[in-house]
């Protein structure tokens, strides 16, 4: 199974695997944000969220744990979606990054830096599972 990035309905690049991270920098607070997602039956399931600090628009969940400067939490209610839609914002200091994760270590492997699409005038992306 793969997680693919779609632009205007066409698959432009994919990562193989069942687990991946989606990361970015918050546009107002300039705070790092990372989410771990898992593919399951052609759906995306949020596993865990990590936020480096807090601030405007960044409210760690009530069950969040502060660990080495990162708030970390798992959703209390399952978050399952067929796709993730993202905007290409000039306000975000670092663009989206999608990385395959090793299931045992949770370390990033191959990554897609969405900055590579900036010169192509792309305004939005969709991430979804593909077989």
Tell me the layout of helices and strands.
Elements: E1 2-7, E2 10-16, E3 19-25, E4 32-40, E5 43-51, E6 65-67, E7 70-73, E8 80-81, E9 84-87, E10 97-101, E11 108-113, E12 124-130
Antiparallel strand pairs: 1-2, 1-12, 3-4, 3-10, 4-5, 5-7, 5-8, 6-7, 9-12, 10-11
Coarse shape = globular
Low-confidence stretches: none
Q: What pattern of helices and strands is seen along the backbone?
A: EEEEEEEEEEEE
Beta-strand proportion? over 45%
Helix content: under 10%
Characterize the quaternary organization of these chains.
Answer: single chain
How far the N terminus sits from the C terminus, by CA atoms, comes to 5 Å
The structure class reads: mainly beta
The overall pLDDT, averaged over residues, is 86
The domain tally reads 1
Largest sheet: 8 strands, antiparallel
Number of helices: 0
Describe this structure as you would to a colleague.
By secondary structure, the protein is mainly beta. The protein has one domain (2-130). It contains no helices and 12 strands. The strands form 2 sheets. Strands 3, 4, 5, 6, 7, 8, 10 and 11 form an 8-stranded antiparallel beta sheet that branches. The N and C termini lie close together (5 Å).
């Amino acid at each position: 199974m793969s997680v693919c990035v779609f632009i205007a309905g066409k698959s432009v690049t994919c990562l193989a695997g069942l687990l991946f991270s989606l990361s970015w920098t918050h546009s107002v607070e300039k705070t790092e944000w990372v989410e771990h997602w898992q593919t399951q039956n052609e759906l995306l399931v949020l596993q865990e969220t990590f936020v480096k600090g807090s601030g405007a628009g960044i409210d760690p969940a009530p069950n969040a744990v502060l660990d080495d400067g990162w708030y970390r939490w798992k959703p209390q209610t399952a978050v399952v979606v067929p796709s993730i839609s993202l905007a290409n914002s000039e306000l975000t200091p670092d663009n989206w990054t999608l990385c395959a994760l090793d299931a045992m270590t949770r370390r990033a492997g191959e990554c897609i830096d969405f900055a590579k699409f900036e010169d192509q005038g792309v305004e939005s992306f969709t991430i979804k599972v593909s077989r």
